[in-house]
Amino acid sequence: MSFTLNSTAKLNNGVQIPRLGLGVYQIPPGKSTVKAVKYALEIGYKHFDTAKIYGNESDVGKALKESDVKREDIFITTKVWNSDQGYNSTLKALESSLKRLGLSYVDLYLIHWPVQGKIIETWKAMIKLLNSGKVNAIGVSNYSINELKETIHSSDTVPAINQVEFHPFLNQKDLLQFCKSNVIQLEAYSPLTRGERLNDPNIVRIAKAYDKTSAQILVRWSLQHDLVVIPKSSHEERILENSQVFDFHINQKDMEILDLLNEDLSTVFLD
């Protein structure tokens, strides 16, 4: 499986999403986010993932505005937060996000978390936004198989993406298989375990064998599982490092070793 920084995955509505992106979760609003996004653009990143709750949508927008890269060559994701879910409030939430981003549309709009009792109502609003042309693709984040089933059965529109935490230590094989069977692209956030397992002996040993870093092994593992992957960092050297994963291939034996590291580790709950 060969990839480059320009490689894309084709979503179920035909939209192409870059395989590798920069997540800006927990990057402080203001100069830090602007600097990180501008640097990523300079070295070839085209995919940026933000959200209302991150508080840095306007900074992502500022970086885009100050860049020479054409808008149509950039892929922007943002998300509707839990307190904004529901039909009318979801519609309003996108308008607010677009205003902060300084954009007329986003490439991907996600429901950030499933809110029980509002899953179907919010999804109907997402479909309306898709049909309006203000978003090119719609999807969900942090959805289980049951929540995906509820969403799928509520309409003829299947989510294009399910963005979840995914790495060898949280290897959600059943969810991945369900998404593949239903043509839902799985997208991995926190692919680097937020640093929690970068010193794992198996990761370190495999990284040394390929003359790569532990982070690069984890990103490459996600890519070879056919995921879209959005490692986050505000440090230029790490943003560059995370993109240097296209000149090697993890062999089957090492992929199998990595596949067996699952311990249901969710770093979302480490704070």
Automatic annotation (TrEMBL):
InterPro entries: AKR, Aldo/ket_reductase_CS, NAD(P)_OxRdtase_dom_sf, NADP_OxRdtase_dom. One of its GO terms (molecular function) is oxidoreductase activity, acting on the CH-OH group of donors, NAD or NADP as acceptor. It is an enzyme of class 1 (oxidoreductase). The keyword Membrane does not apply. Pfam families: Aldo_ket_red. The keyword tRNA-binding does not apply. Residues 21-262 form the NADP-dependent oxidoreductase domain. Keywords: NADP, Oxidoreductase. Its EC number is 1.-.-.-. This is Putative oxidoreductase YtbE. It comes from Candidatus Nitrosocosmicus arcticus.
